[in-house]
Amino acid sequence: MLSRVPRIDGVRLFLDGRTVQVPIDPPAASLARYDMDAALWRGGRQRRAVETRTDSGRAGGYRTGPFHIRTAAGFVTARAVIDTAGRWSNLTERPPHLASAPKWIGLKAHFSEESPAPTTDLYFFEGGYCGMQPVPLGDELATSRIVVCSMVRADVATRLEDVFALEPRLLERSRKWTPLSEPISTAPLLFRPPVPLRDGVLRAGDAAGFVDPFVG
Ligand SMILES: Cc1cc2nc3c(=O)[nH]c(=O)nc-3n(C[C@H](O)[C@H](O)[C@H](O)COP(=O)(O)OP(=O)(O)OC[C@H]3O[C@@H](n4cnc5c(N)ncnc54)[C@H](O)[C@@H]3O)c2cc1C
Fold first, then answer.
1. Which ligand 1 atom minimizes the distance to the CA of 208?
2. Potential cystine with 50: which of 44, 79, 95, 214 (Cβ 3.0-4.6 Å)?
3. Helices marked H in the chain — which ranges?
4. Enclosing domain of residue 147
5. How far apart (Å, rounded) are the C-alpha atoms in residues 112 and 118?
6. Residue 163 near ligand 1, beta carbon < 6 Å
């Protein structure tokens, strides 16, 4: 799989009319999270390194265990649980919504761009930023497909078109793009201090806490 994905050999930051370029050496491989997860899943199963179950959810066992986890293939009982199921994990209790917190949203779509630079590009503006990089196009190595993501305050923009208009160089560049996917969004993005242990369950990654992705 890795031989068929674009290589990213630098990062470009666009801010206040200036550009900073930093090399990535050795170059990074640009692949979709879904493809990486699926490859890990298949690899673990084929090598019998892990036992895999799908559709899991917390069914019981609190603070001291044993913990009972419901899965598509029946129940699993465990002495310990590490929850790595992300911001919307159903393995541990969700934190309460903070009504007063600033509302941030995430936006994403794929576009085609002629000969995109092999870099991760980040454009900054008041109220957020927008990033993009080449991503694989099916089995073809030569790619013109880029993924474009933005994290933006909801009072600043709620659509990618509005995001592009917030940075002049991004606006000019985006005029040459053709959409390849419907945009998707995620909200609310609520930043909280991490809570790595709750009700006896260890938590890692976003399940433990979501921090500003750019600095976190
Ligand atoms: C808009 C936005 C922009 C971001 N930009 C950046 C960035 O530029 N750089 C950066 O480093 N980070 C960025 N992040 C943060 C980054 O995406 C997350 O920090 C990272 O994906 C967290 O990884 P995770 O494995 O903890 O959780 P997730 O990526 O959410 O993965 C959790 C996985 O668990 C699975 N799952 C859920 N429930 C269960 C269950 N019950 N049983 C089994 N599996 C389950 C899910 O399907 C998913 O595959 C951004 C996030 C957002 C929202």
1. 26
2. 44
3. 33-46, 160-164, 168-174
4. 2-34+102-186
5. 14
6. no
**Cα(173) to centroid of ligand 1, in Å?**
28
- What is the rounded CA–CA span in Å between residue 194 and residue 166? 31
Query: How many whole angstroms from 18 Cα to the centroid of ligand 1?
Result: 31
Minimum CA distance residue for ligand 1 atom 13:
213
Encoded amino acid at 39, one letter: A
Distances (CA, A) of 35 to 53, 67, 84: 18, 30, 18
CA 20 to chain centre: 24
Does residue 116 sit within a domain? yes
Count the domains in the chain: 1
Nearest residue (by CA) to ligand 1, atom 38, is: 85
pLDDT in tens, the chain (216 residues): 788 889 999 999 999 999 999 999 999 999 988 889 999 999 998 998 888 888 888 777 677 878 888 888 889 898 999 999 888 888 877 666 666 677 899 999 999 999 999 999 999 999 999 999 999 876 555 569 999 999 999 999 999 999 999 999 999 999 999 999 999 999 888 888 888 998 888 999 999 988 887 776
CATH of the domain at 152: 3.30.9.100
Name the residue with the closest Cα to ligand 1, atom 30.
86
Q: Do the strands 119-125 and 7-15 form a parallel or antiparallel pair, or are they unpaired?
A: parallel
Nearest atom of ligand 1 to the alpha carbon of 131: 8
The answer, yes or no, to whether any atom of ligand 1 lies below 6 A from the CB of 52, is no
